[in-house]
Amino acid sequence: MYSKTMPTGFPKDFLWGGATAANQVEGAWNVDGKGLTTAEVVQKATDRKVMSMNEVTKESIQEAIDDQSDKRYPKRRGVDFYHHYKEDIKLFAEMGFKVYRLSIAWARIFPKGDETTPNEAGLKFYDDVFAECHKYGIEPLITISHYEMPLILTLTNNGWASRKTIADFTRYTEVLFKRYKGVVKYWLTFNEINASTWGFTGTGAVDSDLNVHDQMQLRYQALHHEFVASAIAVKQCHEIDPEAQIGSMLARMQTYANTPNPVDVRAAQLQDQLNLFFTDVQVRGEYPEYMNRYFVENGIELEMEPGDEQLLAEGKVDYLSFSYYMTTITSATDDVEQASGNLSMGGKNPYLKSSAWGWQIDPVGLRITLNEFWDRYRVPLFVVENGLGAEDKISDDGKIHDDYRIDYLRQHIEQMKEAVKDGVDLMGYTTWGCIDVISAGTSEMSKRYGFIYVDQDDEGNGSLKRMKKDSFDWYKKVIASNGEDLD
Ligand code: BGP
Question: Is 305 an active-site residue?
Answer without folding.
Answer: no
